[in-house]
Hints:
Layout: H1 2-11, E1 28-30, E2 32-34, E3 39-48, E4 51-55, E5 60-64, E6 72-73, E7 78-82, H2 85-120, H3 126-158, E8 161-163, E9 168-173, E10 180-181, E11 186-191, E12 196-203, E13 216-219, H4 225-228, E14 229-232, E15 236-241, E16 247-254, E17 265-271, H5 283-286, E18 288-292, E19 297-299, E20 302-308, E21 314-318, E22 320-325, E23 328-333, E24 340-342, H6 345-351
Antiparallel strand pairs: 1-24, 2-18, 3-12, 3-17, 4-11, 5-7, 5-10, 6-9, 7-8, 9-11, 12-16, 13-14, 13-17, 15-16, 18-23, 19-20, 20-21, 20-24, 22-23
Helix pairs in contact: 2-3
Amino acid sequence: MKQVLTLLIILFAVPSATVTASAAELEVATVRSSNAASQITTDGVVEAVRQTTIAAQVSGAITNLPVKAGDSMKTGQILVRIDGRAASQQAHASRAQVDAARAALQVASKDFERQKQLLARLYISQAQLDRAEAQFKSATADANAQIAQAGAVQTQAGFYTLTAPYVGRIADVYISQGDMVTPGKALMTVYDPAALRVTTTLPEIQLASLAQGQSITVEIPALPAAQGIIKLNKFTILPVADASTHTVQLRLDLPAVHGLAPGMFVRLQLPVQAAQTGQAVSKDDAARLYVPARAVLRRAELHAVYVVNSQGRPMLRQIKPGPVIGSEQEVLAGVAAGEKVALNPLAAAQSR
């Protein structure tokens, strides 16, 4: 035991240049105890509620690509132009056919009116009027068909210019200017950064123990500590379970946070109704111990804290660390609930 303590003192020794502090001046924190049965810890990922893959509907070469990955976009902004010269010519031809059909309809309409006047004066037979009426109806139908055809061609021509469906950002671009594309080929992925959510999966057996309406801790390690901890109180359970893994997907809507992006790793602490678990809680699982992360000294694979005794003297003690959750370090062994630990290990080492 003396050898282990001597080794710890050597490993955690601090340079003499460090500012000294008396034991009375040490800032301390109490080892916090938390009921483990009240939470389920699981991992998740950030997703965009609205994420769209922009794909081609026609064939052709990319003639204009004014955006790149990471750019912002506005609704209706041009994202891609495909060579549509042939479609443009077809649209012009369709418009010309519409003009011709309308001119023929105008002639048939005037002829039908004249034939009605002649019949009223008994200059022509009823059969001649019927033929004029049939020609008028045929010209009307032909004009309507040409107008519809021109509309279809115009719509087809619009497929050669792709625009942004909503305000958002360009996640990735899969093409370059000059590339040939075919119908169905993915060109880029866009998403709305204003609407993000966390998606995670849980074993279906744990669903009955989840507590709705209580605080849910969402930790995003990639963000600064001030932004990386988010408190939520609502989640949605998808009504379908995975038949192969027997898990169910949970979704939690996130508020707008600067720097948050789809694909980021997330750690969740979900509240549990312990009374509904129907399981006895062992002594080891009854409570988890936490100390401030900055109170832990780390040297290679060894972790230790300075425990301040009732006389106010700091004593170096090795601990078995668990995961870091936010600004706290879980301690699996080495300290007891209610003990005091020094928040500044270097100052504690100098005051001994």
